[in-house]
Write a structure and sequence with these properties.
The protein is mostly helical and 147 residues long. 85% of the residues lie in helices and 0% in strands. The protein is built from four helices and no strands. Helix 1 packs antiparallel against helix 4.
Length: 147
């Protein structure tokens, strides 16, 4: 075996290892993007469900709709999102959404509702959902474009 053959073998092996590494990295990045998408969707859907439940109680007069809201699932999706993402804009939008939801929920559960104050809290929460969707869409599109 001459030096040329040995060098070609080593270079070929290095290229194969590099290719495997890059493929694995792309798969990991794709999986992380899928997890982020799933958690963002769960958070947004959960908050929309919360609004719907308040609306059903307020407008339709249904009982115990808000008490049936799955707060644990919402918290789990929020925490997963905090773990998976380091994007400051996304985490800020998530924090505002959670705070707006907490304010609206605690106000609603008090029972005595002032229309003006309720409308202000409702609008804040609704705007937070919209902002969260905009920010999460941007973050996910950026990640998926790179993948």
């Amino acid at each position: 075996m001459d030096w040329g053959t040995l060098l070609a073998t080593v270079v070929g092996a290095a290229i194969a290892l590099l290719g495997q590494h890059l493929a694995k990295r792309a798969e990991d990045r794709s999986r992380l993007s899928e997890l982020l998408l799933e958690q963002c969707a769960l958070v947004a859907a959960s908050e929309a469900d919360f609004e719907s439940r308040i609306w059903e109680e307020r407008v339709l007069g249904m009982d115990d709709r808000v008490s049936g809201f799955d707060l644990a699932a919402h918290r789990l999706a929020s925490v997963r999102l905090q773990i998976l993402s380091r994007n400051r804009a996304l985490l800020t939008a998530l924090e505002e959404l959670n705070e707006a939801g907490k304010s609206l929920g605690s106000y609603w559960r008090r029972g005595e509702v002032d229309d003006e104050e309720f409308t202000e809290l409702w609008n804040r929460h609704h705007a937070a959902i919209a902002e969260f969707l905009v920010v999460s869409s941007k973050v996910l599109r950026r990640r998926l474009a790179v993948t």
